[in-house]
Specification:
Glutamine Phosphoribosylpyrophosphate, subunit 1, domain 1; 8 helices; alpha+beta; seven-stranded mixed beta sheet
Length: 274
């Protein structure tokens, strides 16, 4: 794939978005993901930014109790609910939060860090920051761990100016201890945006982290390989056996796509008419 001149991308970009509901959510959750995509599409179609579109679509997924993020997050082994979220833009901005409590929409807190001197916050410090900025504080009830609660919802959006944004959020994989950090807040693992490519991953966080999945998919696309082929390559070649993982990706041109090594990841995409 040839490199896209940023100034040229700003003139030619067609808004688009792709989103997923988690590697283990199941195809029956497709309509729920499509609702989030519709929110992002409405924002982009009216001239809104990729940041706004990605964040608001992610909030829809966080607020939907069928997903393991925000409201639907699973308990840790001690019964607590700890939330992670991250966001990155093609302009080189990044924000992430780790192990937040009492925060139904951690993606909003992560997005608030995009223009700050710090990139990330964790635990009590993240909640104190959120309090100082007036973000909602309310107990996340959570739910018992269950088979298939494999991490993460995610959105990648491209606006008419050519900016690409990836936003991700999770309650963590089932049956993990408090303090465990998965792939979502780790750059190059659960998310990566670089040179007109945005990638988000979902599934068993330890496998995604060891494989640096999002970075490796982006690198392969930037080396000239096809977007869909690059995701399938990563699923086949960069993961340990038995790890259920899904990926979404969006480039500077064209439609976003998703790929998974099972049939359990619901994903949907939209692109504006020319």
């Amino acid at each position: 794939m040839p490199q896209v001149n940023p100034q040229e991308a700003h003139r030619l970009s067609i808004p688009a978005v792709v989103a997923h509901g988690g590697a283990g959510a199941g195809p029956e959750r497709l309509a729920n993901v499509e609702r989030a995509v519709a929110i992002a599409a409405g924002i982009l179609d009216s001239g809104g930014s990729a940041i706004e579109a990605a964040v608001e679509a992610c909030v829809v997924l966080e607020d939907d109790p069928v997903f393991n993020a925000g409201t639907g997050s699973v308990f840790r082994t001690d019964g607590s609910v700890h939330l992670d979220a991250s966001i990155q833009t093609s302009e080189g901005k990044m924000g992430f939060v780790i192990a937040m409590e009492d925060t139904p929409n951690p993606i909003r807190v992560a997005a608030d860090l995009l223009d700050e001197d710090i990139n990330g916050l964790t635990g009590e410090g993240a909640r104190l920051w959120a309090d100082s900025k007036g973000f909602e504080k309310s107990k996340v009830q959570g739910r018992p761990p269950f088979e298939g609660a494999t991490d993460t919802v995610g959105v990648v959006a491209r606006d008419s100016s050519g900016i690409i944004v990836c936003a991700t959020s999770t309650g963590g994989t089932s049956n993990r201890p408090p303090g465990r950090v998965g792939d979502v807040p780790l750059p190059g693992c659960g998310f990566w945006v670089q040179d007109g490519i945005g990638v988000g991953a979902t599934g068993i966080g330890e496998a995604i982290t060891r494989g640096m999945i999002s970075l490796r998919v982006a690198d392969r696309i930037l080396d000239g390989k096809d977007l869909e082929e690059s995701m399938i390559w990563a699923l086949d070649e960069c993961l340990e056996d038995g790890a259920e993982v899904g990926i979404i990706a969006l480039a500077a041109e064209g439609t976003g796509h998703g790929a998974s090594n099972s049939t359990n990841m619901p994903w949907a995409s939209w692109i504006a008419r020319k």
